[in-house]
Write a structure and sequence with these properties.
217 residues, alpha/beta, Rossmann fold, 49% helix, globular, binds adenosine-5'-diphosphate, binds adenosine monophosphate
Length: 217
């Protein structure tokens, strides 16, 4: 399966991607994770990306597309993948279609996580990420047993720099302007399925898995 998850920042893409990708035994490819890894390693890509990320903006299409092209060329993505956070603009979606088309393949399904902005603001404001295993927590909705410590691996939890209120507001503006048009783009291709992303994590997962089952049958 070649899948894409779209939705506003904080909709729960990373949370759902982890489960869906491992259930389907396909790699989860998160452009945000790849950029953050580059930022923490201080690579030239990381240094460039950080400027945009800290401001709540998007890394330029050309840089992002080249990075994804490289990642999709790796062996583990040959038979399927779940993209989380890419594409985020119509030119990125067009480039992805072209990349896959050149290989004689195509996306199977695009799952849109649908949730109101008020709720994503609550989710982003309380998000905590593990330095170690990268698991995503929430101070209220998905609390670790001990504050600031990951139950999974014992790693320290941190708040992303771009989860500050001013940056959240800008990221939502950018989503509305640059990313929301993907709903029409993939809708026109007949590949879009909307998933109600409200309620407990497990309920959203169940809806996503049901959408995948309906697609397969
Ligand atoms: P995205 O990848 O779309 O930006 P995340 O998966 O990082 O979103 O989720 C954002 C925050 O919301 C995290 O702190 C996560 O624990 C929390 N979260 C995810 N799904 C739900 C849900 N269904 N209900 C409440 N909180 C959620
Ligand atoms: P995320 O982890 O998906 O919330 O992404 C964090 C940040 O990385 C975004 O706010 C952007 O600055 C950058 N980013 C991630 N994916 C993309 C993309 N497809 N295009 C441009 N910028 C991206």
């Amino acid at each position: 399966m070649r899948l894409v998850l779209v939705g506003p920042p904080g909709a729960g893409k990373g949370t759902q991607a982890e489960f869906v990708a491992s259930t389907l035994s396909i790699p989860k490819i998160s452009t945000g994770d790849i950029f953050r890894a580059n930022v923490s390693q201080g690579t030239p890509l990381g240094i460039e990306a950080k400027r945009y990320m800290d401001a709540g903006g998007l890394v330029p299409d050309e840089v992002t597309i080249n990075m994804v092209r490289g990642r999709l060329a790796e062996a583990d993505a040959a038979d399927g993948f779940l993209l989380d956070g890419f594409p985020r603009t119509v030119p990125q979606a067009e480039a992805l279609d072209k990349m896959l088309g050149d290989e004689g393949v195509a996306l199977d399904l695009v799952m849109e996580l649908v949730v109101e902005f008020d709720e994503v603001i609550r989710r982003l404001s309380g998000r905590r990420n593990c330095h170690g295993c990268k698991k995503i927590w929430h101070v209220e909705f998905d609390r670790p047993t001990k504050d600031g410590v990951c139950d999974n691996c014992g790693g320290d939890l941190y708040q992303r720099d771009d989860d500050k209120p001013e940056t959240i507001a800008e990221r939502l503006r950018v989503y509305e302007r640059d990313t929301a048009p993907l709903v029409d783009y993939y809708g026109a291709q007949g590949k879009l399925v909307g998933i109600d992303a409200t309620g407990p994590v497990e309920d959203v997962t169940a809806r996503a898995m049901e959408a995948l089952r309906s697609f397969g049958s």
